[in-house]
Design a protein that fits this description.
Layout: H1 3-17, H2 24-40, H3 45-59, H4 62-65, H5 70-86, E1 101-106, H6 113-126, E2 131-135, H7 143-154, E3 158-159, H8 166-179, E4 184-188, H9 197-209, E5 214-220, H10 225-237, E6 240-246, H11 255-264, E7 268-272, E8 280-282, H12 285-292, H13 298-308, H14 311-322, H15 328-339, H16 344-349, H17 367-378, H18 382-386, H19 393-403, H20 407-428, E9 433-435, E10 438-440
Helix pairs in contact: 1-2, 2-3, 3-5, 5-12, 6-7, 8-9, 10-11, 15-17, 17-19, 19-20
């Protein structure tokens, strides 16, 4: 989402680093470009104004400009100010007090509330909770059916009735949860195409009926400036506890993510990063700031890897690497594990400097390339997978015909297999990596 903003900020810092010693006018010129980049990213103008004022006040300090590397210090200041703008630290869901805990999802129609309800239920279930979904949107056609389908996919019960009264449905769901030993109730409320009095009165009544629910506003991150005004109005009418941003994997400019928290004063708790039910992540301001500045996000990458890779399989793989038994089956296993971590373009963005690795860059990574590799390996015999060294001319032609590829494609896959085997063996032994002349470790 932040590709354009990241690219522009990196250009600003590159020009600054090429200037040698920085003068106040150089810093002011650079901050003017940062300001323009933020405005073009659809960040609210008041938020930009306050952000740039704080940056300028600190960046023009004498100790910065006279330091050994003023550009790096200014980049560090920008990073710290971005973290502050985004909320300092991750804000967990409130699970204190007696169960069942109630999470009330509010927002406009089309913001992704229903899908987010299912994602949240699945996430809580994985954390050892027993959630109940409540279908309280009685206005949108098929809203209840949609939530029931999502609940079935997540293996989570959905409470619904035909009373037609959203407030009564939510109250009944809470009673059902108490009797059924559920510890969390997630209420999917109705939205409108725009804010109206009836919607606000209804959800305010629901909030009152449910005691003290954790009310989370679901915002479509692709709606830009409109998201900010929506957040502001909901914040004035409800006791908002936090925000959930959806479609953060989209191609919008991302201004809502940088503005919503500042405008509402409420933390961004979760972000939707894909269409699948498991594509809901805790929002970490520091990690997001690193991504915006093109520094990658190693911590999130490691977390995804831990979720995707079975620990016992990983240990077995390490043994195979150290004993030089890494074969094509292992190669395919590694590629499939990477795919379970999420879309490849998003994974690549988490690797620091990936945009500078040429063919390794996000723009050049396509899912269909992995489909091709998988098809090629699947077209090999068991003997060929176990001992790729025997794959010569006639075997290559047969594999190419079976996988719908070319002999050149087979050669590329065999080369990639050798490179990955060598690289992973180095990692397993604790040695440094050397990628494209860049020594790591």
């Amino acid at each position: 989402m932040f590709e354009t903003l990241t690219e522009k900020l990196q250009k600003v810092f590159k020009r600054m680093s090429g200037s040698g010693k920085l003068r106040p006018k150089d810093v002011r010129a650079a901050l003017k470009e940062v300001r323009l980049a933020l405005l073009e990213a659809d960040v609210h103008y008041q938020v930009v104004k306050g952000f740039i004022n704080e940056l300028q006040q600190e960046a023009l300090g004498e100790e910065i400009l006279s330091g050994l590397n003023p550009t790096q210090q200014i980049v560090d200041i920008v990073h710290r100010k971005l973290v502050k703008l985004l909320g300092e630290e991750a804000a967990p869901l409130n699970m204190s007090g007696p169960a069942p805990h109630v999470i009330l999802l509010a927002g406009l129609q089309g913001s992704g509330k229903t899908t987010t309800a299912g994602k949240l239920a699945l996430r809580l279930q994985k954390d050892g909770r027993r959630p109940l979904l409540c279908a309280a949107d009685v206005y949108r056609p098929a809203a209840i059916e949609q939530l029931q389908q999502i609940g079935e996919q997540a293996a989570v019960e959905v409470y619904a009735d035909d009373s037609g009264d959203p407030v009564a449905i939510a109250a009944a769901a809470l009673k059902h949860a108490s009797a059924g030993m559920y510890d969390v109730v997630i209420v999917d409320t109705a939205g409108r195409l725009q804010i109206d009095q009836q919607m606000m009165d209804e959800i305010a009544a629901m909030e009152q009926q449910l005691g003290q629910p954790e009310t989370l506003l679901v915002i479509d991150a692709m709606t830009g400036q409109e998201a900010v005004s929506v957040a502001k109005e909901f914040g004035e009418r409800l006791h908002l506890d936090g925000l959930i941003l959806t479609k953060l994997d989209g191609d919008a400019r991302g201004g809502a993510a940088l503005s919503a928290r500042e405008v509402t004063g409420k933390p961004i708790k979760l972000v939707g990063v894909g269409e699948k039910l498991d594509a809901l992540e805790v929002f970490h301001p520091d990690r997001m700031a690193q991504r915006i500045l093109g520094m990658g996000d190693v911590l999130t990458l490691v977390e995804k890897a831990r979720e995707a890779v079975d620990e016992e399989k990983a240990l077995e793989m390490q043994k195979r690497l150290l004993s030089s038994r890494f074969d094509m089956n292992d190669f395919r296993e590694q590629l499939r594990a990477v795919r379970t971590m999420g879309p490849l373009d998003q994974i690549m963005k988490m690797i620091p400097g990936a945009d500078k690795l040429g063919a390794m860059g996000p723009a050049d990574v396509e899912e269909k390339e992995l489909d091709r590799v998988d098809a090629i390996i699947s077209s090999m015999t068991l003997e060929e997978r176990a001992n790729p060294a025997i794959i010569k001319g006639s075997r290559k032609r047969r594999i190419a015909a079976g996988s719908g590829t070319t002999v050149q494609d087979i050669n590329i896959v065999l080369k990639q297999y050798k490179q990955l085997g060598q690289m992973m063996k180095t990692v397993a032994k604790g040695g440094p990596l050397n990628i494209g002349g860049l020594r790591l470790g």
